[in-house]
UniProtKB/TrEMBL annotation:
GO terms for cellular component: G protein-coupled receptor heterodimeric complex. It comes from Noctiluca scintillans. Keywords: G-protein coupled receptor, Glycoprotein, Membrane, Receptor, Transducer, Transmembrane, Transmembrane helix. SUPFAM superfamilies: Periplasmic binding protein-like I (SSF53822). It is found in: Membrane. This is Receptor ligand binding region domain-containing protein. The keyword Transmembrane helix applies. InterPro entries: ANF_lig-bd_rcpt, GPCR3_GABA-B, Peripla_BP_I. Residues 88-306 form the Receptor ligand binding region domain. GO terms for biological process: gamma-aminobutyric acid signaling pathway.
Length: 336
């Protein structure tokens, strides 16, 4: 109770004043007897016990006074775009700051429940609905980095009256439609200025053709088509490839070599990107291709030795990919 709290505080003050007086007497006299030291030791023991008891009391009171705020956080730890680990670290740092400082959400404790959506809409839907059914304490959904997951969970979250905020999902324009996704907010910067940048580069460098290589999945292929439509004055060709079709990939690069196509725009994950770059070497393409992409990939992904790639191209390790990829362009944060 409040009365007990005040009484405990007064007791600590009395103990501290007595201990302080004994120390001041010792400092003034410059001499102490065994009995006086025994008294000082007893005073210190009693004061320490009282302070520890007060610390336990106030710590318990602070913890129990906080009301929890529970947020589901689907992130892509595995799958086609597995940048979720970085997202989780950033979110946990923010969580600790918010909970410790008590400035943004005073009186509340933010609880983040992370789960792997595998960059797959169906997987994300199942796990999110299971978690929603297990508790009635959810107040929102945050995280997400893959467009398909964002589009799917944004609809589900809205129907459950939960706001949804994504870390990424910056590709395309569909998620900007507030009619389709009225309760969704994405923090990833859209890439609306990419066509303008490519048009400027075309004028500057005299490009006469753009070869667009894309993962065969619908998500990436649609992005490739949107880019092609946004560049009516730059002739382009879309080449669809699959990560498990090495021979077809080499055939595409051989075709580009024969047509003297040197400007390549890529859509896909980093594993496929490494395979395509290595396929250019397998096709005996002269070094110096201009590689352009807009995806957010892991740091220095081109330096990694990819065991799956090296099954088909044994000499194409991280060092070779780095050499072939030299001078590439990565377009990020180029929205309005």
């Amino acid at each position: 109770s409040l009365w007990e709290t005040e009484e405990a505080g007064e007791n600590e003050e009395v103990l501290f004043k007595g201990y302080k007086a004994s120390l001041e007497s010792l400092a003034t006299d410059g001499y102490t007897s065994l009995s006086q030291m025994t008294v000082i030791e007893a005073q210190l023991t009693n004061l320490s016990a009282a302070l520890n008891e007060a610390n336990d009391f106030y710590s318990t009171m602070t913890i129990t006074a906080l009301e929890t705020v529970n947020v589901m956080v689907p992130i892509s730890l595995t799958g086609a775009w597995n940048a979720g680990a970085t997202m989780q670290i950033a979110a946990e740092v923010a969580q600790d700051i918010i909970n410790q400082k008590q400035l943004m959400l005073p009186g509340y404790e933010l609880i983040l429940d992370f789960f792997d959506d595998e960059c797959d809409a169906d997987k994300a839907n199942r796990v999110m609905l299971e978690k929603y059914a297990s508790s009635d304490q959810w107040i929102g959904v945050g995280g997400m980095g893959c467009v398909e997951v964002c589009e799917s969970l944004a609809v589900i979250a809205s129907s459950l009256f939960l706001p949804a905020v994504s870390f990424e999902c910056s590709q395309g324009t569909s998620l900007s439609d507030t009619g389709l996704f009225p309760d969704f907010t994405r923090l990833g910067t859209t890439r609306s200025q990419v066509p303008d940048i490519l048009t400027a580069l075309q004028a500057q460098n005299g490009w006469n053709h753009l070869s667009i290589i894309t993962d065969s999945s619908l998500m990436y292929y649609q992005e490739a088509e949107l880019l092609q439509l946004a560049l009516p004055d730059l002739p382009s060709t879309i080449h669809s490839v699959s990560a498990n079709q090495w021979t077809d990939m080499v055939d595409v690069m051989t075709e580009l070599k024969s047509g003297k196509r040197r400007i390549i725009y890529f859509f896909g994950d980093e594993h496929l990107y490494r395979r395509v770059i290595c396929a250019s070497e397998a096709a005996e393409t002269l070094k110096g291709l201009t590689w352009i992409s807009e995806a957010i990939l892991s740091t220095s992904w081109w330096t990694q030795d990819d065991d799956e790639v090296m099954v088909d191209a044994p000499t194409c390790n991280g060092a070779m990919i780095t050499d072939l990829y030299s001078g590439a362009l990565l377009l990020t944060g180029v929205g309005e």
